[in-house]
Each structure stands twice: as C-alpha cells, then as structure tokens.
Amino acid sequence: MKTITVANQKGGVGKTTIALHIAAAAHAAGLKTLLVDLDQQGSASFLATGDQNAHRTKENTALDLWYEDREPVFTESLFGFQLLKSSDEIDAVDDDVQEGIVALKRLGNYGFDCVILDAPPAPGVRQVVPLMMSDLQVAPFTADALGTQGLVSMIMGWQNLKKRRPSMKLRALVNLHKVVSGTQKAIIEGLRPKLGELLLPEVLTDREVVKHALRNGKSIWEYAPKDPAADVWRAACERLIQEASEADSDYAGEEVA
User: Fold this and answer.
1) Along the 257 residues of the chain, how does pLDDT read in single tens digits?
2) CA angle (131 as vertex; 148, 199 as ends), nearest 5
3) Domain ranges for the chain
4) Residue 5: closest CA among 119, 142, 98, 141
5) CA gyration radius for the chain?
6) What are the strands of the beta sheet with 33-37, ordered from one edge?
7) CATH 3.40.50.300 for domain 2-245
8) 176's torsion region: left (phi>0), alpha (psi -120 to 50) or beta?
9) CA dihedral in degrees (168, 13, 108, 160; nearest 10)?
C-alpha cells in the first residue's frame, strides 16, 4: 500500500481539490484507491458524495479507525474510488499521537493499493500522523507571500521527519496560479532553482472549470477533456502517483518526538 498525504498549514490552497484529483487519477490507473477525509470541515466528503451533510455524524466515518471494536465503512464515491468520510467531531482524536498511529495503520488491512489522506490545515494529530506515515507528502501552495510561508513550514517539518524516515518524499505543487500576475510568475521562477525536484514542473492555474468539475463528481480531465487545464492536472496527479509508487515504505510505527 502506498500512502499520499495532501497537507499544508495554510488553508485556502486547494488541498482537497488536489486530493480528490489524485484519487481520481489513481482509480483511473486501475489502482484500488481509498481517500480518507481527516478534515472536520468535510469538504472532500461533500464533493465525493454530493451530500453536504455527509460528515455530520459519528457513524461510519474515519473516527471508526480509532475504535478497535469498529470496522471502517467505505463508500463508493462519485468518482469511483472508495471514500472514508470525515466527521464533524473528528477533532476529538487530536490528543494522542500514538493512538493516531495505531488508527491509521489499520488502513493497511483492507487491500488498497493507494491511500490518499486529506489532512486538516491545523498541525495536530490528524496532520502530523499522516505526514509521519506517508510515502509522499504533497504540499499545495499559492505563489504569494503567505503561500510560500506555509510551504516553508511544511518543508521544515518534512526535513525533521526525514531524519527518521530517509525515504519519505515531499513534492510542492503550485495551485490557484493567476496567469496574469507577474509577481506570481516571478515567485515561481525564483523558487525553482532553490527547491529543485521538490517543486513539480506543473503549475495549476486558477480556473472555474475545475470547481464545476468537482461539483459534478468528475475530475477536470473527465469533465472538460479539451480544456487546457485538463492535461496539466492529469500530468501532475500521475506524476505524484508515480513518485509514491517508487518510494520505499519504511515506516515501522515508532512514535516521532
């Protein structure tokens, strides 16, 4: 099983949109795919089911992973991949890192090829533990001052975790890029030599068609295959899946201080 966590300590960078698209790409590639929504806002649960109240329950949600006497209930999403919904009360599990490790390790019992974790922006158990256990961390960011500040925080955290897990990968991905902004273009060009392979070559632009696609339960390449953004989104997601597949899964379950 390969695990990809999509996270950033800054909200509003499109992490859920990217998580959904990675899951859609993995499913399209024939991988048995699960998306786990760990964000109590439940945006991924809503978009993947069409039910805006999907996360307003404690039953049949990701919370079940924290209870040994419960079996998680996976539902088929509108996109075709399996979904483990969030709960608006899932922040109750944010007190104990070791319990979080035990909970998420259970995901390895169900035969999935690829698991995508949509983590909340707050640096608690539901963000830290997924990052600890991932083969690949995906850090979406916006090419502006606040966006790059959030990216720096993610890179610093990854560097600390990497001391314990040398094979752990991180890839940064520019999202919501405004093509008319010379400032954003300059920021991206300035980051490339500094970040090297950490920064994906694809740049995801700010396009309404992506939002329309998700509201219709489809990826951008399914909803609008001729749109210029479709090929870029698909290439980025397929690249991330390939990066994860090449990672060595060396997580042994030990707590990281």
Assistant:
1) 999 999 988 778 899 999 999 999 999 999 999 999 999 999 999 999 999 888 988 889 999 999 999 999 999 999 999 999 999 999 999 889 999 999 999 999 999 999 999 999 888 899 999 999 999 999 999 999 888 888 998 999 999 988 888 888 999 999 998 888 889 999 999 999 999 999 999 999 999 999 999 999 999 999 999 999 999 999 999 999 999 999 876 554 544 43
2) 40
3) 2-245
4) 119
5) 17
6) 75-76, 82-84, 33-37, 114-118, 2-6, 136-141, 169-177, 199-205
7) yes
8) left
9) 30
Supply 90's token pair: 């899932």
